[in-house]
Description:
Among the domains are: 5-298, Beta-galactosidase, Chain A, domain 5; 534-549 and 559-713, TIM Barrel (Alpha-Beta Barrel). Mean pLDDT is 93; it is low at 1-38. The longest helix has 18 residues, at 413-430. It starts with a strand and ends with a strand. Strand 21 and strand 22 (254-259) form a beta hairpin. It has 11 helices and 42 strands. The protein is globular, with a radius of gyration of 26 Å. The protein is mainly β and 713 residues long. The strands form 9 sheets. Strands 10, 11, 12, 13, 16, 17, 19, 20, 24 and 25 form a 10-stranded antiparallel sheet that branches.
Amino acid sequence: xxxxxxxxxxxxxxxxxxxxxxxxxxxxxxxxxxxxxxxxxxxxxxxxxxxxxxxxxxxxxxxxxxxxxxxxxxxxxxxxxxxxxxxxxxxxxxxxxxxxxxxxxxxxxxxxxxxxxxxxxxxxxxxxxxxxxxxxxxxxxxxxxxxxxxxxxxxxxxxxxxxxxxxxxxxxxxxxxxxxxxxxxxxxxxxxxxxxxxxxxxxxxxxxxxxxxxxxxxxxxxxxxxxxxxxxxxxxxxxxxxxxxxxxxxxxxxxxxxxxxxxxxxxxxxxxxxxxxxxxxxxxxxxxxxxxxxxxxxxxxxxxxxxxxxxxxxxxxxxxxxxxxxxxxxxxxxxxxxxxxxxxxxxxxxxxxxxxxxxxxxxxxxxxxxxxxxxxxxxxxxxxxxxxxxxxxxxxxxxxxxxxxxxxxxxxxxxxxxxxxxxxxxxxxxxxxxxxxxxxxxxxxxxxxxxxxxxxxxxxxxxxxxxxxxxxxxxxxxxxxxxxxxxxxxxxxxxxxxxxxxxxxxxxxxxxxxxxxxxxxxxxxxxxxxxxxxxxxxxxxxxxxxxxxxxxxxxxxxxxxxxxxxxxxxxxxxxxxxxxxxxxxxxxxxxxxxxxxxxxxxxxxxxxxxxxxxxxxxxxxxxxxxxxxxxxxxxxxxxxxxxxxxxxxxxxxxxxxxxxxxxxxxxxxxxxxxxxxxxxxxxxxxxxxxxxxxxxxxxxxxxxxxxxxxxxx
Length: 713
């Protein structure tokens, strides 16, 4: 049995001021797990301390330091003696309560250790471990004890998170945060992978690969590689009732937290004591190690919904791609996609090949005309006349398939919230257990009517929208509905707390390949996503296009991958619901390739990144939940390459049959995207799986234990 752990800081403290954690994960602590007391005159007790304070990860490699020696609060971090984050500012500025920065000194500090196992109800891995050392530091105004804030730091082996914990600051508790001073200071020559923030297209940009010094203002997750090869990702966790954080380069290598403002310019509006989201730094010695981090989920609260057995991962098809390639329309009329006849055909296809659901876009009134600018016209309960929603719900249930709802808002949040309760009640009655929501509007173009009836315009990642997105998820949960958010606020791990927030978009997905130059996703796109967008959580990328040159091989709009890469993306880009995005006839014309999609799971026992370099290639191995089969996916950028992948994750003494879908000898995304080799081989733990990846290519592998065969046979 593991002994209880006692951890104290470098300051003097009695054992009673520290925390013991047993092998069972039961906590006892003198540090509050909640935000500070709700009174500016009565700060909560904390062990007295002054000067520099440090805390390290359980394995000792990652160390975080908080100090006040520069005349203001600062923090820094090192990893295996490498100074990955130089001393940088901390602090907050309020409209009503003044500035919490210069002159604030450390007056208290306490530590604890937590080591708690937990399980995901669904996810990329079932068994999780929340293991960290924590440091709580109080910064106070020496001239006024009621002016203070706490910084809570949690350091895991795979990274760190810290947040501000702020007491009630005004008599009525209301405060307006006008700036957060948090900085992240790095070497300006570090290599960075990033997208611009604060522009019209939200998170949907092609990723840049530059030196850190070339960044202006970036979204998170943002990933860097130091000169020593250390990989670092900056992000945030548990974004609740707060503005999202952009990273604004103030001077070379110094990035400041730039909070997304309300329409009136205020960054965050609060009443009473509050905590901020966790500012997170994930770290690894190499690229593939970064992908195996659980930090973001571990910094979120446990499930608040109770029994979530009604949340169902799975595969789906949809009336969706035909709109993007202009074979049908969202709007009503002779080319309308969402008809009863077409939807029944999709339901039949889904039932025939074992898909769980059918997404239907364009089913509801409001799509006619300029729907991008007419969000107020959408109804979320009234179908078009040629879409019999009652009959289709009955028909789907008869076939063992569910309809997946779609609510496009065009960014008109007031119109959506006015109808949301009626819509969710209707969907629950019809057996619609998943809804894809959409907020197609320019950044800064979210529409809301304020309490005075005046229309205001907000950012997708503002505090207002952080509240709205979570409100949708909470209301949906009351009706046992899961939400797939498109044009979302970025993922910060809230799926742990609200498991019905099953996936979201938040980056350039497959649809960009249908729209033509300059919209196309380049071949490197899917080799950068794992280290950027996917560091935050699952993405509804919608892989699986089989007709890669739907307008001809020389057209501007085509998919810049091989067919094998489209299969591999089901393993590489994780989502608990995965769409087979192409038209049914295109799958039936290539049954041998389609076989992989009909068998690849979407819910996993464990997931391992087994090889990769950012922007070049990546390989994952994932084990199906509750089973023994493994699936491997590998993709590359515009350069062809050969990979020899380890199999140390397989069971000892077991022989596996590996069915492989790989790029053929002449494959190339430009000239021969359909050239594919499908073959079978036996594999045992310790063997190598050798894969040929063509330019823009990939490979998918399905490993199944062979009954009656053990190693040596």
